[in-house]
Amino acid sequence: MKHLLVMILFAALVAVVFGVVARNTQKERMVYGLKIFAEFIGIGLALAWLLYFFPF
């Protein structure tokens, strides 16, 4: 469970920074930040699901 929380925290912090740096208006920043957050979480969960089947 701790890994999931760390991934969510990292995704949120990166999304805030990318949103502030990459866009001009407040609305664009919010939409872009939420999009980046969703992409980080989605890709992270997809990779976790795929790697679950590989015994290391």
Describe the structure using short key phrases.
0% strand; 56 residues; mainly alpha
Question: What would you note in describing this structure?
Answer:
The model has no long low-confidence stretch (mean pLDDT 93). This protein has 56 residues and is mainly α. It has helices at residues 2-22, 26-51. The protein has two helices and no strands. It is elongated, with a radius of gyration of 14 Å. The longest helix is centred in the C-terminal third of the chain and has 26 residues, at 26-51. The protein has a domain at 22-50.
Q: How far apart are the first and last residues' alpha carbons, in Å?
A: 20 Å
Biggest sheet details: none
**H/I helix tally:** 2
Mean pLDDT: 93
The rounded Rg comes to 14 Å
Low-confidence stretches: none
> How many DSSP-defined strands?
0
Given helix and strand content, the structural type is mainly alpha
Shape: elongated
**Portion in helices:** over 70%
* Topology order in helix (H) and strand (E) letters: HH
| Portion in beta strands | under 5%
List strands and helices in order, with pairings.
Layout: H1 2-22, H2 26-51
What's this, in brief?
This protein is mainly α. The protein is 84% helix and 0% strand. The model has no long low-confidence stretch (mean pLDDT 93).
